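Re: beginner question about structure tokens

> Can someone show what the tokenized structure looks like for a real chain? I only ever see the sequence side.

Sure, here's an example I had lying around. Input first:
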Amino acid sequence: MTHENPVTAPQGGIAMSQRSTFSGRERQSLPYPQGTLRVSLVIPAYNESAVIARAVAEADTALASICPEYEIIVVDDGSTDDTAVVVEGLQVRYPHLRLLRHFHNRGYGAALASGFRAARFPWVAFTDADCQFDLRELASLLERCEEGVIVVGRRIGRKDPWLRRFLSWGYNQLVRGLLGIPVRDVDCALKVYPRALVRRLLPRSNGYFVNTEMLYRAVRQGWSIREVPVSHRPRAAGRSKVGLREVPRTAFTLLRFCWQQWRRRKPRRLASLPRPPVVWSGRLSVPAATSAPRPALPPASESGHPTALVVPPREAV
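And the corresponding structure tokens:
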């Protein structure tokens, strides 16, 4: 059996998200789980050769028990190890597996965006390649899916180190307080989007700010978010790519994003002030007081333009 060739991601920049909402016709055409479920699962991977085979196997087993039609999209984000080679070998065993490759490392957010664009089925889910989630619990998220609703997981009993849990708690407090996102675990890597909706929320961020950015835009556009508790496991193998140096970087990105959103929503006072009447003559403009008479223009020259602009003095009081 021959397997399909891996698809290469385009070299263009990040697609700009659209802030427009769905029209009535688009709302009626949104898919929701009545009868047959069709799911695209996106798995971004960077130097995950030690664990990617297990991640694919667990994803295929879970999705096969949930829905008859599905695809698993592994996005190799410019790995320097054998991640892509391992996935290519797995395509013979798993016919629902697709491989998307970046020529160089572009970031977690860019990998998710590429996977979202490549998704072909009505429901788009994503998870990480570290096997910290039991993907059989994806069924509980899909049960709560409906038109215009994003379903996100919330990690219960996290198995991460205490410092990472503390930093995550602080970050979630900032996100709720500054941006008003109504979830308690914004970075949980188990979420389900309607495909028609995720195309309107494609992120601009290439890094780990991607979850915050997409959920904020969903809230601003008026879409609903449902949070479902999910179990959490230790990383199966390999090393986490989220180090302590990502903490100040993501915090700076959050503050800059908040500043940009505040500037866009800041009212412009000068634009609402009334403007004085303006007297036009050729290319000259002179603000005129409401009580003063209009200026008298001298006869035009042969070229048709006034030779001078004469403004009569005010009357003595």
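Each token stands for a local structural state, so reading them left to right follows the chain. Strands lie at 7-8, 38-45, 69-77, 97-102, 123-127, 149-156, 190-194, 224-231, 278-281, 284-287.
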